[in-house]
# Entry
Amino acid sequence: MIKLFIAFSIMLLRIYLPTDKNITPPFTNQQVVKAPQNDSSKIENFKGQILQHKVWLQWNVSQNESTYKFDVEKSTDGQHFRVAALVFSSEKNDADQYLFFENASHRKIMYRIKLFEKDNRTTYSKTIVINPKN
# Structure
């Protein structure tokens, strides 16, 4: 039980919650990977990049008030995804922005966001590919 608590605490330390508006995301126009828009999803502008040996993912959500949480999922083959982190939604109404970062891998990794709504529906973002060799 203690190991689970420590692992969960470390995972939470890697997540930037959108309540501190004084911190600006590290995104530049260079090497940003954007996911195609999905009309059925409330996840908008999902993008990622490597900066200072970290993978940074950013996404916006419309209708944030109906969102419960997000799973940040990653995969090395694009078929089998595992949860990299859990991000709880803010209490903000309307739209909000979220960020996640972790240490960059030396190989190509695919990321997607799984959105959980308060009414138990789930939606996936498109998948983006982060390749440190590009």
About this structure: Residues 1-24, 37-41 have pLDDT under 50 and may be disordered. The two ends are 41 Å apart (CA to CA).
